[in-house]
Amino acid sequence: MTERAETLLAFDYGEKHIGVAVGQTLTGTANPLASIRVSDSSPDWDAISRIIDTWHPDALVVGLPLNMDGSEQTVTRRARRFGNQLLGRYRLPVHLVDERLTTREARNRLAAQGRAGDDDHPIAAQIILESWLTEQSVRP
């Protein structure tokens, strides 16, 4: 029996921008897509809807920003709330994944490409999705 390829969208939640990446389970790869603005604690839901309408994902992955010791912070609760809002609006499965150090890794990747200072949010979303895909591939 062949495993069905699933398309996933990942979100790197931030208080000013939300990075978005797309990936799929068959190849286990992810690519950065966009950075969505957040104004007054409210994401640009129209932009998110356009991305969802374009990619028709099977599931969504949201990065959960934790402190280095694993404890939660204010933005952790906001990211959880964002995940719940995605679930309520789009009725798609939402998976939360630890996103510690993804911004640092995104900046390192950009610097290695000679693009230091570019928008790191979509790259952070890509790393979040790569992490989730890797975790799924090692599960029995």
Walk me through the structure.
The chain has 140 residues and is α/β, with parallel strands linked by helices. The chain has a single domain, classed as Nucleotidyltransferase, domain 5 (2-Layer Sandwich). Helix content is 40%, strand content 27%. It contains 4 helices and 6 strands, in the order E-E-E-E-H-E-H-E-H-H. The chain has helices at 45-55, 74-90, 102-112, 121-137; strands spanning 7-12, 17-24, 29-39, 42-43, 59-64, 94-98. Strands 4-3-2-1-5-6 form a 6-stranded mixed β-sheet, with helices on both faces. A hairpin with a 4-residue loop joins strand 1 (7-12) and strand 2. The protein is globular. The protein starts with 6 loop residues before the first strand and ends with a helix. The mean pLDDT is 89.
Helix/strand layout:
Blueprint lengths: L6 E6 L4 E8 L4 E11 L2 E2 L1 H11 L3 E6 L9 H17 L3 E5 L3 H11 L8 H17 L3
Parallel strand pairs: 1-5, 5-6
Antiparallel strand pairs: 1-2, 2-3, 3-4
User: Rough shape?
Assistant: globular
Alpha-carbon distance between the two ends: 16 Å
- Output the structural class: alpha/beta
* Topology order in helix (H) and strand (E) letters: EEEEHEHEHH
- What is the total domain count? 1
Instruction: Characterize the main sheet.
Output: 6 strands, mixed
CATH topology: Nucleotidyltransferase, domain 5
What is the radius of gyration?
Answer: 14 Å
Provide the CATH superfamily: YqgF/RNase H-like domain
> Are there runs of 5+ residues with pLDDT below 50, and where?
none
Number of strands: 6
User: Mean pLDDT, rounded to whole units?
Assistant: 89
Strand order of the largest sheet: 4-3-2-1-5-6
